[in-house]
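Quick one: structure for this chain?
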Amino acid sequence: MTDRARVSFAGAFAGGGVAQAAASAAAATTPVDLGPLPQWRLDDLYEGMDSPRFVADLARAAAECKRFAAAYQGKLAALAEAPDAGQRLFGAVQEYEALQDLMGRIISYASLLHAGDTSDPKRAKFFGDAQEKVTELAGELLFFELELNRLDDAQLDAATRDSPLARYRPWLADIRKERPHQLSDELEQVFLEKSMSGAAAWNRLFDETIASLRFSFDGEELTLEPLLGKLQEADSRVREAAAAALAKTLGGNLRLFTLIMNALIKDREISDRWRKFADVADSRHLANRVEREVVDALEAAVTDAYPRLSHRYYALKARWFGKPQLDHWDRNAPLPDAPTRVFPWRVARDTVLDAYGAFSPRMAEVARRFFDEGWIDAPPLPGKAPGAFAHPTTPSAHPYVLVNYLGKPRDVMTLAHELGHGVHQTLAAPNGALMAPTPLTLAETASVFGEMLTFRALLASADDKAMRRSMLAAKIEDMLNTVVRQIAFYKFERRLHLERRAGELTTEAINAAWLSVQSESLGPAIRLGPGYETYWAYIGHFIHSPFYVYAYAFGDCLVNSLYGVYERAPAGFADRYLAMLAAGGSKPYAELLAPFGLDARDPAFWGIGLSLIDRMIGELEALG
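Got it. Here's what it folds into:
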C-alpha cells in the first residue's frame, strides 16, 4: 500500500519542523520560576521496558497475527460470495481492527519512551526492536487490505448492504482509493520489510544525529532547542551569535545531512515509480485524501500573496528596528522595547483551559484531562525530543502531548496547539483504530483553532498598547511561519525531489534551492546572510514526512475561514465544530466542511483565509 500518512504524531509548533523555542537542561536554568512542570505517566500503556504486560502483549500480537493470516489469507474472495458475506467480512474487519489497536499500543509506548530521551541507548534499542517486531507483524496482516481491494465493487456493495459491515463503509471506500497504486502481495511485502533498513533507518540516523549535535555558544555546549530559543532573545548580539553557532555546527555536518536527504528522496522516487504516481507529491496527496489541484491552488494563492503578507510585514518590522533590512537572525526577534511576559505553568494551563471553555465547556473538559491525568510532558530535559507533538497512541488508550516549556508566550501558544490535537484525537477515538485517524488535510484544524482561541483571549486581556502590538506581531509571525514558510518548504521539497531525478544532489545544489525559495517567500526586507544556506538541514519534516508541510498552510487557512464563520454566526457553531472533530477519518474533508458553507475546492476559498492575515497586518499598522 502507499504510505497513507494518517496522523501518528502531529505536530509541532506552527513554525514547522523543530522551530519551537524550547528546551533542554541548559535552557531549564532560566531564573524564572515556572512552577512544577508535569511529566507524563506512560504506565497507562506499560509500566516500563521490562513490563510483563508489554512482553505478553507482544507475544499475543504475534500469535493473533499468525492466526488471523491462517484464517483469512487467500479466502476473502470466497467469503464475499457466501450468503452471509456481510456478517463474515464484518467479523474479519473487527479482528483486524483489534490487532491494529494492539500493535498501535505497543509501538506508541516504545516511541513515546524514546522521545523522552533519544540519547539513551537502552531506549533507542528498545524502540528499534519494537519497530522491527511491529513491522514484521504488519507483514503478516498486509494481505488483508490488498485482498479487500481486489473484491469487485458489486460484491462489496452487496456485502455492506443491510449488514453490520456497513459500519466500515467509509474505511472500505477510503482504502479503495489506493487500488490504482497497489502492487502484488510479494512486492508489498518486500517494500514493507525493506522499510526498516531503508527509510526508517535513515530517519533514525537523522533523529539521533540531531539529538547528539552540540552548538558552541558563549562558553556552553547547547543542544538544538535551547540554541533556537536564543534566536528569539531581545539582545541582537545573542541572536547573531546563536545564528552563527547554528550555521557552524550544521555546516560541519552537511555531508551527512546531504546523504540522508539524497537517500530518502531516491527511496521515495523508487516507491512512487513502482506505484505509478505521476507527480512527486501525488502519494502525499493521496495519503491526505486531497486532490492535487486543491493543493496547487493553495500553493498558487499563497505565493501570489507573498508581497502583501510576508514582504509587507517584514518591511514594517525592519522600519521598527530602524533598518533597511533585517538580518535573518532578526526574523523572529521580539519587537524593540517589547514588554517581557513570562507565563508560569499554572498560568499557561488556566489561560488555555479558560479560552477553550469560553468557546465550549466540552472542549475544556477534554483538555483538562491532559493536565489532571498525567498526559503531558513539559520539562525541557537533555536528550528529550525537540519541539512539540501530540501522539494519539491508540483508541483503547488516550493521546499524549509533549512540549518543551520555557514560559514564553509562544510556548503558551504551542501548548494550546498541541492540546487542540489532543482534543481532536480524543473525540475521534470512538471511531476505532481504522477510522479515528484524521487525514492531514484536517489534522491541523483543531490545533490551529485552539491557538486562535487562546491568542484572542490573551489579546483581550492585554490593556497595554505596547503589549498588544507585541502580541499581535508575534501572532502574525506565527501565521506567516505556518502559511508562507510552510508553502516555501513545500516548494523547496518539490524542487529537490524533481532535481534528484536527474542524479544525486550536491550540498551546494540543496543550499542554493533553499536560499532561492526562502528569498522569494521572505522578501527583500530580510537579508539572508552567510550561514543561512545550511538551515534546511534541521527541518525534521523533510526527513520524516515528505510534503507534510503544506498541511500546516492548509490547516491555517482553513481555520481562518472557520474562525470567520464563527465570528459572524457563533450560535450553534461549537456543536458543529466538535461534531466535525468527532468524525475523525470517517468522512471526507469536503463533507465535513459543508455544514460551515466552506469548499476548499473553490479556487477563491484560499483567499478567505489569507485575507485574515492581511487584515491583522493592517490592524498592526494602525497601532503605529
